[in-house]
Amino acid sequence: MHNEVASFIDSKVSGANATVNNPENGDSSVSVDASKILEVCQALKNGEHEYNVLQVISAVDYVDYLELVYILASFSKNTELLLKVKLDRGNDNNLPSLESVTSVWSAANWQEREAYDMMGIRFNNHPDHRRILTPDDWEGYPLRKDYIVQEKYHDMVVNPEAKVNTADHMFMKKLKETYPDPKKVSGSWKSDDGDAAESEA
Amino acid sequence: MSAEIEIHHLSSTRPQEESLTLGKWFRNIWTGLSTALKGMMITGKYIYGVKPVTIEYPEVREQLPANSRSRLFNDAENCISCYQCATACPVDCIYITATRRDSDAEKIKTKDGTPIRLDLHQYTIDTALCCYCGLCTTVCPTECLTHTTDYEFAQYTLGGFKYDYLAPDIREWRTRLVKD
Amino acid sequence: MFEFVNEASEPIKSDLMTVNMGPQHPATHGVLRVEIQTDSEVVARATPHIGYLHRCMEKHCEHLDYRGVIPFTDRLDYLAAMNMEWTYVLAVEKMLKTEVPIRAEYVRVIIGELQRIASHLMFFGTYAIDLGAFTPFLYAFQDRENILRIFEEVSGARLLYNYIWVGGVWNDLTDDHLVRIENFLETFEESIKKYHKLVGENQIFISRTAHVGVISKDQVYDYGLTGPVLRGSGIDWDLRKNRPYSIYDKFEFDVIKGEGLKGQLGDCWDRYYVRMMEMHESIKIIRQALAGIEAGPVMGKVPKIIKPAKGEVYMRTECPRGELGIHLVSDGTKVPYRLKVKSSCFTHVSALGEMAPGMLIADLVASIGSIDIVLGEVDR
């Protein structure tokens, strides 16, 4: 089925470079060029495959690049399609961007806002381009793999020492200092000096 | 402001009332009264026909089902310090530290016969973080870590939720909870 | 918009006023804030603001093993936790290609449909409260309590179960439970009819809900709405029927859709009606499952450490509030690489901005109640 969709996309949108991914495990998908996403979506919605519902836009951070997965469904043909586009990671001043598909499905409005909020992907011509789940003044994009938790937010300390049970975490380290044979001490918690949890299972 | 358009929208969603005739006026009263009376009859049956289902809590205390997942209890004497509970815990609220026993020390066993090779020094669970998911009790090989059915354990401070299962006052629960 | 006619017969228009409804408002079913611009009683524009219950669930899941995620999926839609964890578990099983024992499938269906009844009862109770009736809420909770009691005995918890596990279910339903479920359905079937008569046919309720919050078929597809909202607009679509997962292809039941009986097609009353009638269908399914349940194990063979091969799956199931989708990406390690939740409530709230203009404020309350959102699922 995916081969048909790919050839359909190629016949309708020139330059979309639709390729079918058939992994050994899991669902297969169709990749297209990010610059043509709007045309591809329009073709898929109005064409013979009738993908009339946008289920979700899922953004995945593969460290080298970002990937947007548009999961489309056809309620008339009872089919599903994972449509993928690859994007560069960009940086804070130059976020990766592509065309918004809100004009095709209104459902894309909030899904794209979430992708922007969580992954830092900019959507051009989006009617309401704001953060959605985090506050407007949040820094960084939390679902990126290199996201670093803010130390302070509005003068509030994030993860204050009193609330993270430091004494319990450091119990093993202290015991190692006082116990006659430190090698015999083991613990469940990874303490700050890099001891891994030992398992005797 | 596009308010005029919105008003137009309103008239389309809520159809305007047709002109009221005398017959319609009476019919409205009749449907309103009759459906309300029908409902009153249903609720009326509950006054005498249905027994109260609530219990008066402080006087009557409910016994939770046997496999309810409430406060955790670790029977420290049967714990072999395998750390499986701490590894399985999704919120990382179990803190264990143990030391290996000397090879010439007295051999001790749990009640199901598993040899204990480590001495527990710390077995603390921060119950305030616990999500009562039950993953730690299912992986426990000696079944020393169990969910009890105690549900009244409110505390005045957050620190009070930290249970040190090696402390004598918590070990005393054993007589009540563990049946040998 | 009030129009006063002055001597020069020019209409005077009143200004729009911005009002915040929520985040703490009894009728928003949680911490939803709707910024509404009103002209007296008429809503000119409504902008929902979400995120007050955001708990970084998707980020957390990237640091937990596959079993540890299940308690977190419970906390998405905490009123239908069984269905939430079922969806996630199905996604993992699809990735692992695990076989589930047949008894476990039956237990899952029974539990899942009971949860659907419990969730719809919650809707019934809270919706009546939204519209000013208190008694139905107590009746709904009385019946819901019976279901929760069975859940508590089987899974050990009343709300957040961690019951459906990869490869099967945690605990088996005993014969005693099956009999009790059967007896409960017997009395409950009569109760729903009574409840429907009490609330659904009451003239005040009809006046508050008929012709209110109409969602057309085009809007449903445009916004990707699912579940009772979709069926309330007269669309014949149910994943249990159209794309059967688990063993739903073995059961006979009807897909209930709105017919516009009291007002327009797709109004609040239709959505209420779909949910009430769906409880009857759930009873049908549970009865068939109780009749067909086979003896056997409830846990299949699953490796001790779950490590699916590299790949990704998208799994969607029919939950009480709509379709829940789980997009799960694995990189071959013991933690999920990415877990994206397609929440039905999220899409439903996004359509609120389109539904609201032109409504009265009281109708907005009725509309929010009728799309039956749980903010835990919206914000994740």
Descriptive tags:
heterotrimer; B: about 180 residues; alpha+beta; Alpha-Beta Plaits; 2 domains; three-stranded antiparallel sheet; two-stranded antiparallel ribbon; 5 strands; about 30% helix; elongated; disordered N terminus; C: about 375 residues; Cytochrome-c3 Hydrogenase, chain B; 15 helices; 10 strands; about 15% strand; globular
Can I get a quick summary?
The complex is a heterotrimer of chains A (201), B (180) and C (380). Chain A has 201 residues and is α/β, with parallel strands linked by helices.
Which strand order does the major sheet of chain A show? 1-2-5-4-3
CATH superfamily of chain C: Cytochrome-c3 Hydrogenase, chain B
Structural class of chain C: alpha+beta
CATH class of chain C: Mainly Alpha
Q: Could you tell me which chain pair has the largest interface and how many residues each side has?
A: B-C, 39 and 45 residues
Order of helices and strands of chain C: EEEEEHHHHHEEHHHHHHEEEHHHH
- The average pLDDT score of chain A comes to 81
Secondary structure elements and their pairing?
The complex is a heterotrimer of chains A (201), B (180) and C (380).
Chain A: H1 2-12, E1 19-21, E2 29-32, H2 37-46, E3 53-61, E4 66-74, E5 79-87, E6 97-99, H3 108-119, E7 122-124, E8 152-153, E9 156-157, H4 166-169, H5 171-178, E10 185-187
Parallel strand pairs in A: 2-5, 6-7
Antiparallel strand pairs in A: 1-2, 3-4, 4-5, 8-9
Chain B: H1 3-13, H2 22-49, E1 72-74, H3 84-88, E2 94-100, E3 118-126, H4 135-139, E4 145-147, E5 162-164, H5 168-171, H6 173-177
Antiparallel strand pairs in B: 1-4, 2-3, 3-5
Chain C: E1 4-5, E2 11-12, E3 17-21, E4 33-39, E5 42-49, H1 57-61, H2 70-74, H3 81-96, H4 102-130, H5 135-155, E6 164-165, E7 168-169, H6 175-200, H7 203-209, H8 217-223, H9 228-232, H10 239-242, H11 268-292, E8 311-319, E9 322-330, E10 338-342, H12 344-350, H13 352-355, H14 361-371, H15 375-379
Antiparallel strand pairs in C: 1-2, 3-4, 4-5, 6-7, 8-9, 9-10
Q: If you had to describe this structure to a student in words, what would you say it looks like?
A:
The complex is a heterotrimer of chains A (201), B (180) and C (380). With 201 residues, chain A is an alpha/beta fold. Chain A has helices at 2-12, 37-46, 108-119, 166-169, 171-178; strands at 19-21, 29-32, 53-61, 66-74, 79-87, 97-99, 122-124, 152-153, 156-157, 185-187. The two termini of chain A are 46 Å apart. Chain A folds into two domains: 2-152, Beta Polymerase, domain 2 (2-Layer Sandwich); 159-201, no CATH class. Chain B has two domains: 21-53; 72-177, Alpha-Beta Plaits (2-Layer Sandwich). Chain B is built from six helices and five strands, in the order ααβαββαββαα. Residues 1-12 of chain B have low confidence and may be disordered. Chain C has one domain: Cytochrome-c3 Hydrogenase, chain B (Orthogonal Bundle). Chain C is built from 15 helices and ten strands. Chain C is globular and about 70 Å long. The two termini of chain C are 38 Å apart. The chains are: A alpha/beta (201), B alpha+beta (180), C alpha+beta (380). Chains in contact: A-B, A-C, B-C.
